[in-house]
What does this fold into?
Amino acid sequence: MSSPPKPTVSNYREFREYPRIVAAVSRILARKRFVAPVELFVEMDLLAAADLERWRRGRVPVLERVIRCNLTKAGRILRLLRFHAHDLKLNPSPTVYQHKGHRLRFSRSGEPKIEQAYSTHLVVVGKRNPFAEDSKPKAS
It folds into this structure.
């Protein structure tokens, strides 16, 4: 049994999760100027908002324990998000998640690349948010 292909620049739009990611990112950017991967998982209904809040308060040791998909799919979503963010010209912004001075963990392994993928926010460039609800043309 072979493993599924990894998302690449040439094939990322073909993945089943891609349309859901695009829709979720669109809804998030309509409300704010950045996309946090953890909020994407909430928007896609793969992470309960209550579980995210418990993790932020240090009550869940590792975020991946409460994400409602397998780790392969979670990693694929993070990778697809980065490709889509590049298309939208969003800037990556490393972010530190802490609770009471302790850095929160996203993954069981604690591998730096995985932690970085979860913690990097993708930010709209410029003073105006072209994705915001109030900047979209009104229907007549």
Observations:
- The chain has a mean pLDDT of 92.
- Strands lie at 34-35, 91-94, 98-99, 102-103, 120-123.
- The chain has five helices and five strands.
